[in-house]
Amino acid sequence: MSPKKRSQTPSTSTAPGQSRRGKTQTNIGRPAFLSDGEKGTRLQKFLAVAGVDSRRHCEDFIRDGRVTVDGEVVTNPAVSVQPDDQDVRLDGERLRMPRYRYYLLNKPKGVVCTNNDPAGRPRAVDLCPNMDQRLFTVGRLDENTEGLLLVTNDGALAEHLAHPRYEVVRRYRVQVAGIPEKEALAELRDGMYFSDGFFRFQNLRVLKKKGRSTFIEIELQEGKNREIRRLFARVGHKVIHLQRISFGPLRVGQLEIGKCRELRSQELKELYDFIRQAPHSRSVGKPRRKPRDAAKKKFASGGKKSTSEKSPAKETGSRRGAGRYSPVKKGAVKKSAAKKKSVKKRPSAGKKKGGRRGK
């Protein structure tokens, strides 16, 4: 028998596959770079996309000999398959590429974004109609944060939106205790170092003051673990309420908390256009090394690099990397080698210069 899927109870007033306005999604051109091209799809990945289970569990199913391709048992998860042209079966049941689904969810507090929660807490995917497909959230919001989440079964699109190298802007509305001074706001804009990295707000704007609290709108290009709460706590202001209001081109709008709807055709088109314009290479921002042409010009004369032209050593800001990148003095290696040789030449404590130990 095929593996059991965890039931996902719909919690939406709209019919599956239909938006609130009553218009279903049309076939809008999905960006070509999101597909795997002519080489096909890894068998393990295809099973996960088909809604069988997570990739890790799908790998176990393949290694156990439960998967066949064109009638032959395949035990290698990395085998490439063409789902449209080949017959792929799990326990004798034919698997096909599913229709991609995209849902906009206004996540409430107390709901987690993981698909596998041992504590049994409410999951975000349970608030969307699953249509017998495995859904997951694009990125995460912590349990006490509410707001916009994109829920889908499109893994390639999820990677382009969630990975930091694509610089997708996330906008939040936050209410903090107290009234931050200008110095505190400047610190938040400049950023601060934490044990797990450098945190900063891309943009920050004070909206209004209410009693002894302040409403602020902030922008991030990379969502790290409890980044917003930790930054405000560092400047002495506790976060009272936190809501994500936009993610890339998507807006939460008037969608009620706890409700879910399928993306409208125009929203899906804007999302695809946004992905097409986003950088698709890993080198985002300033290049790490200088162009080859510039390097060729430097060495055109045939001379060596001068000491002033050498690239500066890495900063030793963190304790963990301080010893690794500390500069080595000239001749230190030679001196240590010579010291070892001198130790070897020394006579042992019980020997005389003449040779054997005296009687």
Automatic annotation (TrEMBL):
Residues 306-318 have a biased composition (Basic and acidic residues). Residues 1-36, 279-359 are annotated as: Disordered. Pfam families: PseudoU_synth_2 (PF00849), S4 (PF01479). GO terms for biological process: enzyme-directed rRNA pseudouridine synthesis. Residues 41-102 form the RNA-binding S4 domain. Residues 8-17 have a biased composition (Polar residues). It comes from the Bacteria. This is Pseudouridine synthase. It comes from Fuerstiella marisgermanici. The gene is rluB.
